Amino acid sequence: MLEHLKKYWFLILIVIILVVGTITFSKQQIDSTFKGKKVNGKDIVFALDKEYVNADEYYEGLLPTDGGKELYRLFERYVLTEIETSDEIKKQSAEYAKNQVDNTSAQGSKALEELKDAIAASGYTNGLKDLKTLYENQAKLVLIEREYIKNNKAETADPYMEDAKPRIVSHILIKMADAENPTEAESKKLADAQAALEKGDAFGDVALKFSDDTNSATQKGSLGYIDSASNLEEVFIKAASEVNAGETTEWFNGKNGKHIVLVEKTSFEDLIEEDNFVTSVANKYQEVQKESVLLASKDFEITFNDEETEKLLNDFIKGGN
Amino acid sequence: MKKLLVLVSALLVLAGCANKEASPSTNDVLITVGKNKITQNQLFHTMKASDAGSLAIEKGQNIITKDITDEEIADQVAELLQKQKDDLKDDFLDSIQSLSFETEEEYVEKNLKPYVRMKVYLEKTMSEDYERLAIELMPRKIAVLEIKGKDKADEAKKLLSDGASISSIAKQLDQDVDLDGTETLEFMATAQLPSIVSSFVKENNKPITSEVLETTEAEIKYYIVSVISADVVELKDEAIELALSNNKVTQAELAKIYKSKGFKIYDETIYKALKKSHGTYLAN
Prior knowledge:
Oligomer: heterodimer
Structural class of chain A: alpha+beta
Strand content of chain B: 5-15%
Number of helices of chain A: 15
Largest sheet of chain A: 4 strands, antiparallel
């Protein structure tokens, strides 16, 4: 025995470490999380004061407050899933999902858990595996919302365009520490940019050459879609909303220096092709999303288990709570 | 060696089995959309995720207060309902409908009665457990007068030496200050008072009025503090009333109640949500 111990001491040590480690890990896992429980063959959700509330009771308790909303969420998900997915959407969604998982993983396990929770809360129950489907469905939702807005322009897009002044813009920024009192160098750069514009150089070329907004300068100053709700300085939104398509603003002072904005497009025909415009209108008029999904659902066979379920869904679609 | 491997595997399996999502006993298909089926289980899962455990707290409250009868709370419910109607006037019905209650009766049954039941229950438990509560919260009836500047402080000293009360000093100094010498009940364990004031109150368990107290900060501040009552028995009713209106205190008491009654969650989604929002309520 002693000879065996001497001969295999290292192996024995490894086995002891492995067993102790496994026991500790298992005990921690078992102690640190709750355990499932069944009473009379039914899953228990919680216990309090020696009473048990089972999953059937909990389900019935949740239905009046969350049932319609969550049933609609699942219904929307499967209607969107049924709509054919183009190769472009498939490719783009796979890319978005991969990038998001990579970026979130880099932030640690807590961030990853939060992402999984967010996916589950959107009605997708297979965790990260569902992220690509979620992106595909979001893209398809925009497609059907776009059609709905086109067909209901007077009730949706027209008032939105009147209120929010949506437009496609580009800008040039001449960075200044104090736009009220520019330095000599800053003033010269501003004058050079203005001279180029007056000479007739294209706005995009001037932006490329002079703009200090490094993100947009490489895109020839393009900021894309903006409206009154965009996360931009108030002075910027105000200036951009006061000129028509094809016009530029005067130079105006912002927090980072002096800006000039070219408003490129403001027409419905141009804006409706922008996903941000479609999403903004759908956010403002909530019937856009629900009615679009309802219309799209008519292309597929829909069967309800009972009238109660049908009523629950329809009440939510009509009522909006 | 084989036995060891079996032991290790069994432990790992056990650890893995600890996580659990509760499910309804039936899993009917609710809606079929083309090739896809929406089942009860799926709906249950998304509802749980969206509700984040609120229903468990609400149902728990009903269990805790189940012995409080409608008769016991009838007057309080009627009084509260009338107050809300008086406050909201014509907006009352819209207001309860915005909370998803279709009728006044539904609102009373599902909202007002549970609220009043819990209040009555808390009042009872706080009264029964007042000795502990008094030690934890240190209720004291006090009056604190803040004095602005040295000149006013000198004037106050003279008035004090002449035997003036804190309220008459406050009246004579006629200042615009937050601590204006009004009698108030404070829980010294949580009160947001200047430290010199808190220390004086905590050090004196009998009715007493301080001299003019001076802080040692660069900008000297002056206070007169009067401990009107440190008799926690005498202050019981008022202290419980104050405790019931203090969200921090009621939350801590509720946490003790839920935990002591063995509030255990057996569903992973709800457990994770409540661990974040009501961690102190949980017994697991």
